[in-house]
Amino acid sequence: MSESRRVTPSHAPKAADVAEGATITASLLCLAHCLVLPLLLASAPALSQSLALPFDLHLWIVLLAGPVSLWILIRAAWQRRHGILLLGLCGLSLLMAALVLPVTERQEIVISSIGSLSLAFTHIANWLARHPRLLVHS
Q1: Which pLDDT belongs to residue 8?
Q2: What is the pTM of this model?
Q3: Single GO molecular-function term (predicted)?
């Protein structure tokens, strides 16, 4: 008699891996947006009219990506990775601060870029901590 049990392949992505990948991608896209887009618009001013993004877009991005990042960070804290939680909260705080503090556009770019970098680094470090076998060379 054969056993009927559900077998999932070992390479099947876990929900945390998918969420972590999404947050890393979002952080890097945010960084590209903060650094590359202003350079592109400065070099081609005519593009600024067609690529004008509403301020609310930044708010919606933080409101959508923030909870996913927070969920991942809380899971890291449950696994006693408190440094990852702390660095991630700093990154999220910087992204929110860039939205609500009365700063110049340059200051907003700097604050957002540091927040995005720290959040991307946090999620990469957390992913590597969850997959330590990837750090060992065979």
Answers
A1: 42
A2: 0.69
A3: mercury ion transmembrane transporter activity
